[in-house]
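fyi for ur records
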Amino acid sequence: MVWIRIGLQFRNLVQEVILMTISKKTLALAAMAVWLGGTLPAQKPDAAHAAPKAAIDKELIDGDLKRAIALYEQVAATYKADKAVASQALLHVGQCYEKLGQKDAAGAYDRLVKQYGDQKEATAARARLAVLRGPESEGIRIRHFPPAGAGCMPQVLGARLADCHRPEGIFIRDLQTGRERLVVPQSQGRLLPGAISPDEKTLTYFNLSSGLRAVGTDGSGDRLLAKAGFGRTYQNSVPLLYQLWMNDGAHLMMYRSVEEGGKTSFELLSISLADGKTQSLRRIELDVIGGAALSPDDRFVAVKSATQGQDGKILVVPVAGGEAIPLSLTGAVGRIVGWHPSGRILYTTNQTGGSIGIWAIRVEQGKAVGTPELVHAGIHPSTRPWVGRDAAIHFEEWGGPHLVQTSTFDAGAGQLGAPRPATKLFTSGNWGVGYSPDGKSLLYASAYAPATVKIVEQDLASGGETAFSVPYRSVGPVMWDHDGSSFLVGALPAARAEWGVYRFVPATGESKLLAGNVRSFSRTGQTLYFIRLDTTGILRGMDLKTGEAREIMLPGNPEELWGVEVSPDGSQVAFAYNTGGRNGITRLATTRLADGNTRILFEHQTGGLRDPITMGWTADGKGLLYSLPTSVRGSDLWLAQGDGGQPRKLRSIGEAVQRIAVQPNGREVAFATRDHNGGKFWVIENAFTKRGN
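which gave:
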């Protein structure tokens, strides 16, 4: 009997080996089919086919990962002009290194992203880099882009396709070429766009008349998955559908409400994209679900929930069964943003201190670890952020946001670099920018509504930002006081208070009015210069130490002064003013305070421009950087040199420039803008948490 038992074990072992071999060969053939699906170079087709086949065989059949890496590297080098082939080869290189447990995987993924960033394999590489590294060395990075298309919701920004909902219906937009295809006409009913599958071949959407549907991104195969009234899922639209795609790309996880004995609960189900069949996974005992997100490994669902008589909260629910675990959050619970591709961070939006922010919660085995971390604050209440498959957080903001941007600056060469977003904590709703006297910090104001005003100090070396709540209803320009320990703020403390220049001490929160009824002000050394709304042509100077003031008559008694800016050494003042009303002439002039010598830099027909001219002196005081509105939607930046030469146009800006500040060392320019064009897409990268993974 013993020998019979041993014989049966041997037979089973042989069968297992045979099955494993067949399985590996099948896998290799499948992998080869993927390669051959692309377009290989026309030259020597046999060699072109053989090269990836040999690499795949070494990886999947022989298990010789080191040799496979060498062969994949050869493929990447030989066919580097064929993006589809080379990007797949580099992705395999990274995967092989990961299987070997070697750090070289990150290098392969880096090469793929840098050399073939427009390929779909680059999206997978970015996700793996985010998991392997956590945040990159430069920390959290925020970028903005113009909208990919009106009404376009790029759920897979960083990959190839996005879905767009317009009055005509649901479109598929190629993010690289900009081409669009109508896939679901609006005539079919009231539509809510869903999201594109991981392989970018299927789009899910809601037809409020029929139910949850799926259609190919080429417009073919439109089919019903679940009838209308299937649950309350349709109320949560786009972010919900995207987050519930399962790993295999062939199923969606959904939920439906169940009424039993007068009590509501929710049932988690998986729905097959092929035939619409559902499988019950588990029940959740809740009254309301206001959003959900499936973890990347399909093991947990994060839900925003509420039970009768209780405030909303975020729960992490194990799909296979077990206790739902609440996550501790700061402030009022907002939306579930989504999971990081590593599955170890859940992002949510919460409101604290009058500001809505994106928070990161570390999650291990369904439980919160540590305390939530603020990733980004100050998003608009209507904004819906989500986590893309590239591991970045994406969101779209509309309504003409105020931005703070910076550019490199070389006054001597007359060169101004391309503008880039400057802020970290608050994306938009920012203005009133200024540099510290030593040039090491940047200051700006931020708010979306009264009573939410913050003044933010950014350390230019580390990029770290500190936000101070201030007792003002509205804020204009902000700058440092002469001693660097307090701020000078153009502000309105309350609805019926006096608009003026206030000194705010961040250490104590103390606020003191220095000058009231002020239109514009500037500071040089310990002197505050300002013009009042109730007088014309008079510049006032106030000693910030003693409070003593003096009046300076500007030549020509200019009416409707738009702004003043005193040079760093206090010898000259630049001012912009109108003559003849809003449709008259706008002039920009400089005056030497010692002798009143005045030079007009330019005259311009106003034409009803919406935004005033703003200006900033170069660090050496020999030049003046200023903005000239070109229309209601943009500005040009100009540089006028002190030698009397013709002003030089440096750069056109797509937004209206509303304030300029030049860094004391002259290397950088910061400016506040207002975008009249509509909105922008924002991408937050390296947001895996500030302290790493």
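The two ends are 55 Å apart (CA to CA). thats all i got for now
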